[in-house]
Structure formats: C-alpha cells, structure tokens
C-alpha cells in the first residue's frame, strides 16, 4: 500500500492545532448521515499558513483515530483528466488508520472500478485509438469528437491501445461503480473523506462528474455513502469562485479558515520543547505566527549575549516595532508611532546606541539579531505587558508580508473602509482619480476577489488591513468612508424605491396574466362547446351559413321594395299599376321565402354562441390574441422577476 505523501512544509516543527481540529470535527457528519451537517469543507488561509499540514494533522489526530474514517487523497501527484484516472488515483493514495487490513481490498476494488465496466467491443460509446508507442509518451484525451476523427474499430490488436471514452449514459454507472467500492457506514465506516488538496489538478470533466454524478448517487439509493470533501484555497470559496457549485450539496458547503498561530500558542509549544522563553518570543516575532517561518528560524542557533546598552525604558517603545518589521523607513515612522516626534525619537535611539542598528544610512532602521534577542529578553521580564507590546505590532508586519509593495499598501489602506466596489461606486467616490483606482482594483486578483462584477478586498488581508488602518488613523480613509457612506445611503434609498416599484409592476403583471388566463380558459371552453354543437347540428361558415347570415338584410330590402311597388300600383295608370303590383307581390314572396332560413339561422346562432352573435372563427382569433398577450405577460413577469433579483443582489454589496 502506498502511503499518502507528506507536504514538504510539514518537515521540522509541527505545532499542533488541537482546538482547530476539534472544532472542524464537530462540524462534520462523523456520527451519521445527518442533513444539517456540512459535506464540503473549503479549508482556506494565507500562503504558508499551514493548510496542508493542518489537514495531515487532522487526519492523524486522536479525534479522527477514534472514528473509522477512510481517507482518499487523489490529487497528491499527477494531474487528473478523466473519471477513470480519478478513481485510479484514489486507489493509490488511500489510508484507513482504524482498519489498515482493508486498505488493500479497497485499493483492488477501485483499480477494477476505474475500468468502467465497459466492453470496448460491444459498447455504443466512442472509442479513441492510439498506437502504443504514442500512448506510452502521451496520455490520449478521450471524447467523442476525437474518436470520430480517428474512426472506430471492431477488433483489438496488440500493436494498438484502445481507450474507452464514456458517453453520457455511462457516467452514472461509473459513479456507482466508484461508490460501490467504498465501505458503507453500516459496515463500520463512519465517513469517507476525499481530500482534494490541489483542486487545479482536476480537469473540468472530472469536477463535473463529481458534482453531477458522484454527489447525486452518494445522496440517495443503494450507493449512498457518508462522503465528505475537503478542498484547499487561499480565500473564501463563496467569494473567489463565482461559478462554484456542488449540485445537491450546494447548501452543505462550509468555509473553514486556518489562521497564523497566536503568540501564546506558539511560545508555549516552543518553551515546552526546551526553547528559552526570550528566544521563543523572538522566533514568534520573526515568524509572525506562520509555521514555516518558525521552522526556518529554529534552524539557526542564536546565542545570548549580555544586555546591550541602549535597551532601556527610553528607547524600548521605539524599538518594539522593529521586532516584527524588518525595517522602518523614516517616512513611515510618523504613521507607525502615532507621534509627530516619532522620527526624532527613532533618530535619538540610533544616536544613543548605533550598535543596535544595521543598514540605516539615515533612511531606514533595522535592529541587529543580537539586539532583537536582548529586546525579547527585556520584554519577557515585563510579563503580560511586554507580550501585549509585541502583539501590537503584528498587524502591520503581517500586512507587509502579504502586501510587500509599499505603494499597493497605501492604496489598500485608502480602500479599506469600502466593503464592495463596482464601477459606479468607484466613479462616485473617487471622481477624477477613478480610472486609476478602477485599474488597481480590477488588475490585482491577488488582493481582490470579484463577484457579480463587484470587487472586494480579499479576506486574506481584510482583517489585518482594518487593524492597521485603525492603528495608523489614516485621515483620507476616514473621508472616503464618510463619502461612501453618504453615497450608499442614497443608493440604498434608490434600491428600496426601485424594488418597491418593480414589485408593484410585478403584482400588476401577475393580475393581468391571471385575467388573461381566465379569459383564455373561457374562450377555450366556448370553442370546445361550439365545435361539439357544430358537429351535431350546424357547420359554421359553410355556404348555407354564409347565405343565411345576410338574409335579415335581404328580407328588409324585399319588404321595403314591395311596399314601394304596392304604393306605385295605385298611382300609376292601369297598364303600369298592374306591373308594379305584380312586382311588389313577387318581392313580398321572396322576402317571405327568406324568413324561415333566417329564423333558423338566428336560432342556431343563439344556441351555438350563447346568445352572442360571434362565430367560431372570431373565437379562434380571440384565442390566438389572448394566447399571445398571455405569453407577452409571462415574459414581462420573468423580466420583472429578474430585475427584482438583480436589485436584491445589490443589497449584498454595500459600499461601506
């Protein structure tokens, strides 16, 4: 069995994080498939803060050893491009501390599962063929397009290598095959932790397979498993990865931060291992609590000399920041010491004891290592007060470590009061210098994270930056905070008003949509009634109906014409009055002949249309119009809903 590789940073001193280990374990579903517990943990923190070492310590801690947990760490070495390679890597980097005899069994099962249980001859999936000489040097990338470009085969030859590219219908079976190799909780395994230390080693194909197939299969059915994912990053997952998603486990994602060691923890550990208290204070001051720097410091043997002249009550407050800061420039002295006389104070300390400094040259000041050691001994004698003075200078030193460029630090201090920034807020806040600020914010991903076109100072440095800004009392930052506060108050009012107006329009649109749908349903019902009656009694819009439709007008014309002709028959001479009488009688007979069909038409239409003189054709036209209007209204509702959601999102991004 191949052991899980140790991170290089874990060599040397390993300060235990017992409290953090217990806290993380409490958040995990180690005692059952409890839905209220998180299932995906983003372990995040600054570079060299010890994330990988912490996970290794967590894996080997008593709290984990007391639980039967299977550990898989597939991303320890090579990059992984396919699900098969992921499963294979899991079999190579596997550890089961509570039950090591089962490791080989699980490893063999995973090795079998990574083949996908697919017969390459009978499979309907695409297969990519590459010659063995090529395959040994370069791993073939498998997909349907690549397979189509080289053709398919119905036989296997020894001089070629055949790789099966899974289609959509095989991803499920491969996920199930993978989970089937992992032990059930009912068989004594409390949890299966998959540690994805190097997330960028996984291809998009693999991450999509995990999220869209493995997680759903692990959530239900016969392949349900108590799986926990551990990922590592330098920032909050919900800030730095906008496209991050975990499918059915999206609501079970938890960010867990690993912080630098506090002074008490580090010093207590060092002194318990035989390091003198004053030397432990020095090592902590130089390392700022970052494990790797403590390890490097321990490699050096720092002898103790006599207390240097100049380490006295007058110069001590001036020298303390130089314990954690590599050097102090004259232009920074006023801000660091909160005093208009700080520059002269530092210069006097240098004049009084120049042997304590090195590389000053009148522009910057740096304590010698021996002076630092003696200073730490003096502070150690002062007890808690001395320790507090060392801690007071940590924030600036950690900020300088995270942001070594002085110009960048000044800009970040100005931006520190702003929670979120976008183009509008930057333009309104900084006006003439907005272009420069926007270029700085958008061009420095190491300091900023983006979300929905908004920018935020990275959480890695935000707290430290706020402490430094507060300590230095940056006047311009106060002005920016006040201005941004007023802008946000105004914008907040606009957002609330806009949201209320959109909500009102949405309610109106929903009412109108309901009215249209009711009218559409009524029209559909009437059309069905008309079609049913038309089949039994009457066929609308045929030739007979079209003729009868105008009989009422024809009867009226005939009646008027006959009355006129009868009148003329009395006024005209004998010859003509006879002709007029006959013509009037004929018109009357024609009108009388049309009356039965007209009466029938009216009765039929009355029964057919419920008393309304509307034809089926007109109903069909109304239905089409109603349907179109209803669709337009639904589109309007969708757009209004989207606009309201966009407005609500803006409430998540206050300027201050």
Could you characterize the architecture of this molecule?
It is a single chain. By secondary structure, the protein is α/β, with parallel strands linked by helices. 57% of the residues lie in helices and 8% in strands. The chain contains 29 helices and twelve strands. The strands form four sheets. Strands 3-2-6-7-1-8 form a six-stranded mixed β-sheet. A two-stranded antiparallel sheet has the order 4-5. Helix 12 crosses helix 13 and helix 27 runs antiparallel to helix 28. The radius of gyration is 42 Å and the shape is elongated. The two termini are 54 Å apart.
> What is the CA-CA span between the terminal residues?
54 Å
> Main β-sheet, in a few words?
6 strands, mixed
| Oligomeric form | single chain
Radius of gyration: 42 Å
């Amino acid at each position: 069995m191949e052991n899980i590789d140790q991170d290089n940073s874990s060599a040397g001193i390993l300060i235990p994080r017992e409290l953090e280990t217990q806290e993380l374990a409490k958040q995990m579903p180690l005692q059952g498939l409890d839905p209220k517990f998180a299932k995906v943990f983003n372990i995040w923190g600054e570079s060299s803060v010890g994330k990988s070492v912490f996970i290794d310590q967590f894996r080997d801690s008593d709290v984990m050893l007391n639980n039967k947990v299977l550990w898989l760490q597939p991303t320890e070495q090579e990059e992984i491009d396919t699900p098969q390679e992921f499963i294979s890597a899991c079999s190579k980097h596997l550890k089961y501390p509570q039950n090591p005899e089962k490791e080989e069994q699980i490893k063999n099962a995973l090795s079998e599962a990574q083949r996908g249980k697919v017969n390459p001859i009978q499979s309907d999936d695409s297969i990519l063929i590459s010659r063995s000489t090529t395959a040994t040097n370069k791993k073939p990338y498998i997909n349907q397009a690549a397979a189509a470009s080289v053709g398919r085969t119905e036989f296997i030859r020894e001089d070629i290598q055949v790789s099966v590219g899974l289609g959509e219908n095989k991803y499920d079976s491969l996920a199930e095959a993978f989970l089937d190799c992992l032990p059930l909780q009912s068989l004594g395994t409390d949890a299966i932790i998959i540690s994805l230390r190097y997330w960028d080693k996984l291809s998009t194909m693999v991450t999509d397979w995990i999220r869209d197939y493995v997680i759903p299969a692990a959530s239900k059915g016969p392949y349900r498993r108590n799986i926990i994912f551990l990922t590592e990053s330098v920032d909050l997952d919900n800030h730095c990865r906008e496209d991050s998603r975990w499918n059915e486990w999206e609501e079970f994602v938890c960010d867990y931060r690993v912080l630098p060691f506090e002074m008490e923890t580090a010093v207590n550990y060092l002194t318990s291992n035989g390091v003198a208290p004053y030397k432990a204070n020095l090592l902590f001051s130089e390392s700022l609590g970052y494990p790797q720097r403590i390890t490097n410091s321990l490699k050096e043997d720092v002898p103790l000399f006599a207390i240097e002249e100049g380490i006295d009550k007058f110069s001590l407050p001036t020298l303390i920041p130089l314990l954690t800061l590599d050097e102090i420039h004259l232009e920074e002295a006023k801000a660091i010491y909160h005093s208009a006389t700080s520059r002269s104070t530092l210069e006097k300390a240098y004049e009084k004891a120049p042997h304590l400094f090195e590389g000053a040259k009148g522009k910057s000041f740096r304590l010698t290592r021996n002076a630092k050691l003696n200073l730490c001994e003096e502070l150690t004698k002062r007890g808690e007060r001395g320790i507090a003075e060392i801690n007071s200078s940590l924030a600036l030193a950690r900020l300088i470590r995270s942001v070594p460029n002085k110009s960048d630090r000044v800009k970040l201090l100005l931006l520190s009061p702003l929670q979120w920034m976008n183009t509008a807020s930057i333009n309104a806040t900084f006006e003439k210098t907005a272009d420069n600020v926007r270029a700085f914010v958008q061009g420095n991903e190491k300091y900023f994270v983006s979300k929905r076109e908004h920018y935020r100072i990275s959480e890695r440095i935000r707290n430290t930056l706020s402490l430094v800004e507060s300590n230095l009392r940056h006047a311009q930052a106060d002005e920016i905070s006040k201005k941004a506060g007023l802008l946000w108050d105004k914008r907040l009012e606009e957002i609330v008003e806009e949201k209320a107006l959109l909500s009102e329009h949405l309610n109106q649109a929903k009412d109108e949509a309901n009215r249209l749908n009711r009218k559409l349903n009524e029209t559909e019902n009437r059309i069905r009634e008309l079609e049913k009656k038309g089949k039994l009694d009457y066929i609308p819009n045929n030739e007979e109906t079209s003729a009868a439709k105008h009989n009422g007008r024809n009867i009226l014309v005939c009646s008027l014409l006959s009355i006129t002709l009868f009148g003329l028959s009395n006024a005209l001479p004998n010859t003509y009055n006879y002709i007029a009488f006959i013509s009037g009688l004929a018109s009357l007979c024609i009108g009388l002949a049309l009356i039965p069909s007209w009466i029938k038409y009216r009765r039929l239409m009355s029964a057919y249309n419920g008393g309304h003189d509307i034809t089926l054709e007109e109903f069909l036209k109304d239905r089409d119009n109603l349907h179109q209007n209803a669709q337009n209204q639904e589109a309007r509702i969708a757009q209004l809903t989207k606009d309201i959601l966009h407005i609500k999102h803006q409430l998540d991004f206050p300027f201050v």
